[in-house]
């Protein structure tokens, strides 16, 4: 069992410096886990750390998923087979630039439920989740012959609150369900982080990207009895849509790592290998985490400028870290793993298409009538699109249209004609006049990631209200359209048109709406599966599927310009590439490239 003293850790009576790297099983495909874990060993690490995202494993209340990319049990077995210890961080909230910080979207359907505090309604849901999850983790503890050394109570709670009763409930719940290895918390090294987030009687660790000596000095001031550990050494960073790609030089990051180790501390590289925010799992931040203002959605790639890149290849940072870690490792690191082959460059014509509005009824989970626009959560929708419809009575002159609580982007149509594209935090108010007795108003609303950090946790999607001048519009219908794996399956594909015209009146419940959004399809033929990067020159915003698997979102505002295509998604022969372009600017081709373009 792992034991602790102010001098450090020991395992079974032998000193152990934890040289750990974060690798999230849910950001890589299961077929790639062994390769990525062996790459950690090749860098000189002896431990792997992973979060456990609640929302991935319980997509709907009481419906659990531990298969495929969600097979935590298989990942922990693979990490043991790779010769790595494991640190598991299963707290209900994980941050991680992950959708809603790992909290399930369906918690937000109850507007009275309070997140991350000792609210009985929230704790009841957490307890039920822990009943299912914690015994699985407990079976892999070192005390039972496994490789799990320690388990986190909650994540960076000092960045959020001070509810010590909540932290105690989580710690008690872990113990009562079989966790007997050390429990810990992780927070920033400032006084308010540590006083708000640490739990009495359990290890406190700190997260930072530089100035290790200063950070550990602050930790020792509050916790002189705890060994020094940086649970998140931020050696890179993540990106938001519309902002510059973040990089950190290998020399600077390696110098900061050396300073950590020179303080006789243990370390967890965040990230060792970042991976990909597949599907709709990318989260979001806000420019001001205190007020929740300034929405910043996270890109699909989670490369993180990590030492092992999104494809699993060693970077210059890998070699710089390997050199630093070699002085502290118990044995020499093995050679890096060989990489899988790359696809040859190719241009794929997307020759088939179907307008989105032609298939709204086919894809919708059902029409909902409401006096006010219901949120995505009230509609039972995790992510995707909702087509909201109502009418504006007339005749009346032009007045501004205001979309209250828009989360996060809306195409506005008046009598079937595109009127505007509005975004969250925008001050734009299109002027709309009604010449006849009424005008048909349609809003196609798309969600991006829910906020994963700060005061804006609990980010609801959709609309809260729509005003024409000062008057609320009522009498709404809503068509929820989930977007995820399998969405393009079974669509009535036809030859691609030069541009998407008006949908036929009455088609799938659509009354002649002219919409540019459409699905497009083409095929990639390969001899053998291989890695690649998909570029979408000339496209604007939307989603990509490969053989029905949702790679994620693309957006021409960057910085990301290519999407990583992992080899396990492909099969010998013909492979389907499907694109949903929401703004109507279809390529009409996509490209396979051999290098990523992250901006």
Word description of this protein:
The chain has 599 residues and is α+β, with helices and mostly antiparallel strands. The protein is 17% helix and 32% strand. The strands form eight sheets. The chain has an eight-stranded parallel barrel with strand order 4-5-6-7-8-9-10-11, surrounded by six helices. The protein has a six-stranded antiparallel beta sheet with strand order 26-15-29-34-31-32, with no helix packed on it. The chain has a six-stranded antiparallel beta sheet with strand order 16-25-17-22-19-20. Strand 27 and strand 28 form a beta hairpin. Helix 4 (120-138) packs parallel to helix 5 (164-176) and helix 8 packs parallel to helix 9 (316-326). The model is unreliable at 498-514 (pLDDT under 50).
What's the helix and strand layout?
Elements: E1 2-5, E2 8-11, E3 14-16, E4 19-23, H1 33-43, E5 47-51, H2 54-57, H3 72-81, E6 85-89, H4 120-138, E7 148-155, H5 164-176, E8 183-187, H6 191-197, E9 203-208, H7 212-222, E10 229-234, H8 250-262, E11 266-273, E12 284-288, E13 293-297, H9 316-326, E14 346-349, E15 352-355, H10 360-363, E16 368-370, E17 384-393, E18 396-404, E19 409-414, E20 417-423, E21 431-434, E22 438-446, E23 465-468, E24 471-472, E25 476-482, E26 494-495, E27 505-507, E28 510-511, E29 518-526, E30 532-535, E31 541-546, E32 549-555, E33 562-565, E34 573-581, E35 589-593
Parallel strand pairs: 4-5, 4-11, 5-6, 6-7, 7-8, 8-9, 9-10, 10-11
Antiparallel strand pairs: 1-2, 2-3, 12-13, 14-35, 15-26, 15-29, 16-25, 17-22, 17-25, 18-21, 18-23, 19-20, 19-22, 23-24, 27-28, 29-34, 30-33, 30-35, 31-32, 31-34
Helix pairs in contact: 4-5, 8-9
């Amino acid at each position: 069992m792992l034991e602790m003293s102010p001098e450090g850790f020991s395992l079974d009576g032998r000193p152990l410096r934890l040289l750990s790297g974060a690798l999230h099983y849910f950001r890589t495909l299961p077929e790639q886990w062994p390769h990525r874990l062996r790459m950690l060993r090749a860098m000189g690490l002896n431990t792997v750390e992973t979060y456990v995202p609640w929302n991935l494993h319980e997509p709907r209340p009481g419906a659990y998923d531990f298969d495929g990319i969600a097979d935590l049990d298989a990942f922990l077995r693979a990490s043991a087979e790779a010769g790595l210890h494991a640190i598991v961080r299963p707290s209900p909230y994980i941050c991680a630039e992950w959708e809603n910080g790992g909290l399930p979207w369906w918690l937000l359907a109850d507007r009275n439920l309070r997140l991350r505090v000792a609210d009985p309604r929230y704790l009841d849901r957490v307890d039920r989740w822990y009943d299912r999850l914690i015994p699985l983790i407990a079976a892999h503890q070192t005390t039972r012959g496994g490789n799990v050394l320690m388990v986190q109570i909650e994540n960076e709670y000092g960045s959020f609150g001070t509810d010590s009763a909540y932290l105690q409930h989580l710690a008690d719940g872990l113990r009562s369900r079989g966790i007997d290895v050390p429990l810990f918390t992780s927070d920033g090294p400032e006084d308010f982080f540590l006083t708000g987030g640490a739990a009495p009687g359990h290890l406190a660790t700190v997260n930072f990207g530089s100035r290790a000596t200063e950070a550990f000095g602050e930790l020792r001031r509050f916790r002189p009895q705890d060994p020094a550990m940086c649970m998140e050494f931020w050696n890179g960073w993540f990106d938001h849509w519309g902002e510059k790609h973040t990089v950190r030089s290998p020399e600077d990051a390696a110098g900061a790592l050396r300073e950590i180790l020179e303080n006789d501390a243990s370390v967890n590289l965040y990230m060792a290998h970042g991976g990909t925010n597949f599907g709709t799992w990318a989260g979001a931040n806000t420019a001001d985490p205190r007020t929740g203002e300034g929405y910043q959605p996270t890109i699909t790639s989670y490369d993180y400028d990590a030492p092992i890149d999104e494809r699993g290849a060693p970077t210059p940072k890998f070699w710089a870290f390997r050199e630093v870690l070699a002085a502290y490792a118990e044995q020499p690191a093995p050679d890096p793993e060989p990489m899988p082959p790359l696809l040859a460059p190719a241009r794929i014509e997307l020759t088939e298409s179907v307008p989105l509005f032609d298939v709204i009824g086919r894809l919708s989970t059902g029409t909902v009538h409401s006096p006010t626009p219901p949120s995505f959560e009230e509609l039972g929708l995790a992510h995707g699109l909702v087509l909201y419809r109502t009418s504006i009575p007339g005749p009346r002159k032009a007045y501004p249209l205001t979309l209250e609580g828009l989360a996060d982007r809306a195409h506005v149509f008046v009598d079937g004609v595109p009127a505007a594209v509005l975004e969250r935090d925008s001050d734009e108010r299109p002027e709309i006049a009604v010449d006849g007795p009424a005008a048909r108003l349609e809003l196609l609303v798309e969600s991006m990631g829910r906020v994963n950090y700060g005061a804006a946790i609990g980010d609801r999607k959709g609309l809260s209200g729509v005003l024409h001048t000062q008057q609320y519009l009522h009498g709404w219908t809503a068509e929820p359209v989930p977007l995820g794996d399998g969405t393009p399956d079974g669509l009535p594909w036809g030859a691609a048109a030069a541009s998407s015209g008006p949908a036929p009146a009455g088609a799938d419940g659509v009354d002649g709406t002219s919409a540019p959004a459409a699905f497009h399809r083409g095929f990639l033929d390969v001899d053998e599966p291989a890695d690649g990067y998909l570029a979408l020159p000339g496209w604007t915003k939307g989603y990509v599927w490969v053989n029905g698997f949702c790679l994620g979102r693309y957006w021409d505002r960057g910085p990301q310009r290519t999407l990583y295509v992992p080899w396990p998604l492909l099969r010998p022969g013909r492979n389907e590439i499907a694109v949903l372009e929401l703004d109507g600017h279809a390529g009409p081709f996509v490209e396979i490239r051999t290098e990523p373009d992250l901006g």
